[in-house]
Amino acid sequence: PSGRLLAKRQVAPTDPPVVDPNPRGNSRGGRGVVIAGDAIVVANYHTLEVCNRELQVTGTFSLGNFAGIHEIMRRGERLFVASTAINAAAEVPLTAVLDTAAVKTKPTAHARFWWPTEDPTVCEQLGVPCTNYPDKQADNRLRHLNLHNRGRVGHLHLNAVDADGGRLYALLNKPGAILRLDQSGSMEVVLRHRLLEGSHNLEFIAPGRAWVVGTRSGLLLECDIVAGEVRPLINLATTPFAREVGRATAKPVWSWSWLRNRDRSSVPGKGDKAADATARPLFWRGLAVDDNWIFIGTSPAAILGFDRRTFAYRGVVRFSGHVREIVHGIALTS
Fold first, then answer.
1. Which of 17, 224, 247, 330 has its CA 20 to 30 A from that of 69?
2. 3-state secondary structure the chain
């Protein structure tokens, strides 16, 4: 990778603005990103921002049930949104997002939502109590900025959505599961595995096979939906970049779960110890794949490149040396 930076812009929720009580900055920065022709769609906490190739905002799209958006994924003319704070998956017509941006007005098109915590079958499969969100017509975008939101009983941390043919799937970070979402409205847990706990990103690379970034394990994982199996493909913790970060902590880096419990005061770019107490080096997140490359993001902000065929490490592009700065979404364009 050449690492040439073409443009940059700060991403933050402004309409409405967010006063965030979370020391990790729960509403901070850009999240998922997709390419749509000459447009770039990037998510902030509750809004999809549409930009041109110079990253100038040309319009926005937001709905009342967009809260804590994580990943977004484009498949054809459909855009899938993970509304993580309220455990919801959404499907939005791409034209609605782009047309709204063109005229710079508030959107009137509504997404289709799935609410897995309201489904008795899903809750029974996961062993969690059902949770209802009764006021779905209200503006819920700022109602879930709670320090204890992620840790509450029944929270699934649904953080990625993708389609495999005509079927939709969602990644559940907290229980470590993949959920099938049918157009009829029914839902079912189709895969659950300990390596999926705390994971990010969900991208189908072939029918029935999806890749997931194992944030805790430090692995790129392949999920076989039909066989119900999870297989490691790449050990991210053994890359030169991860070992360099490990040397900065005076300990070898075997996994993020090991490193998160160690003193990180010597990580490059570390600032105030109290302010940075929640920062996590080697927090693996962000995935993009084409015919030749696999790109995976991490912290301190960097994108690692791997050969798609052999899974061999090919290099890293660094954006920051500060552990509090991290890659979230990655999208590829020609």
1. 224
2. CCCCCCCCCCCCCECCECCCCCCCCCCCCCCCEEEECCEEEEECCCCEEEECCCCCEEEEECCCCCCCEEEEEEECCEEEEEEHHHCEEEEEEHHHHHHHHHHCCCCCCCCEEECHHHCHHHHHHHCCCCCCCCCCCCCCCCCCCCCCCCCCCCCCCEEEEEEECCEEEEEECCCCEEEEECCCCCEEEEEECHHHCCCEEEEEEECCEEEEEECCCCEEEEEECCCCEEEEEEEHHHCHHHHHHHHHCCCCCCCHHHHCCCCCCCCCCCCCCCCCCCCCCCCCCCEEECCCEEEEEECCCEEEEEECCCCCEEEEEECCCCCCCCCCCCCCCC
